[in-house]
Amino acid sequence: MSTSSNTGLIANWEIRHSRSRNLPYYFNSVTGESSWEPPFGSDTTKLQHYMATQYSGSAQSGNNNTGGGQSIGADASSTSSSGVPTKVRASHLLIKHRDSRRPSSWKESNITRTKDESRAILLAHEARIRSGQITLGQLASTESDCSSARKGGDLGAFGRGEMQKEFEDAAFSLKVGEISSIVETGSGLHLIERTA
């Protein structure tokens, strides 16, 4: 299959920007198909380089939203009358494995590692983050298997019922600035940082 010389995507696919999620996604201009994950057959090395230079440059750790346009987490600190948050904002680092719901990512079209191997990778990342060597956002931009890597792992603000239950429960239990231990969902294994 031929790929685009600059993006590494296969023929008829292009990168577009979702206004609702404020994230890039993949779109087939012939079939109209869209996907958060790169199409099978793309040159993932070339695509990873392209995405890192085009989309990860503005990803910052912490609460800074340096991208142009709206702040996707502006209302992230909404709370109910009882003081319980109704929305939180979080970033995450996702490591998928072969039993994940969708075992592919912008980095790899076919993920074959086991859950135990993914856990070992994430534990090593967690150790670097907790030692202060690197922030979760910095590491997510190059290592996360989620398309949010392009924004340093930032998922924006979300309320109850918008994420997988295990992820949601962990995110809502964190204090601002706190990082979870490993959280397992159908998508894979996550480290979650509540940012607002």
From TrEMBL:
SUPFAM superfamilies: FKBP-like (SSF54534), WW domain (SSF51045). Residues 56-112 are annotated as: Disordered. GO terms for molecular function: chromatin-protein adaptor activity; peptidyl-prolyl cis-trans isomerase activity. It catalyses: [protein]-peptidylproline (omega=180) = [protein]-peptidylproline (omega=0). It is an enzyme of class 5 (isomerase). Gene3D superfamilies: 2.20.70.10, 3.10.50.40. GO terms for cellular component: cytosol; nucleus. Keywords: Isomerase, Rotamase. Residues 85-196 form the PpiC domain. One of its GO terms (biological process) is positive regulation of transcription initiation by RNA polymerase II. Its EC number is 5.2.1.8. Residues 7-41 form the WW domain. InterPro entries: PPIase_dom_sf (IPR046357), PPIase_Pin1 (IPR051370), PPIase_PpiC (IPR000297), WW_dom (IPR001202), WW_dom_sf (IPR036020). This is Peptidyl-prolyl cis-trans isomerase. It comes from Nadsonia fulvescens var. elongata DSM 6958.
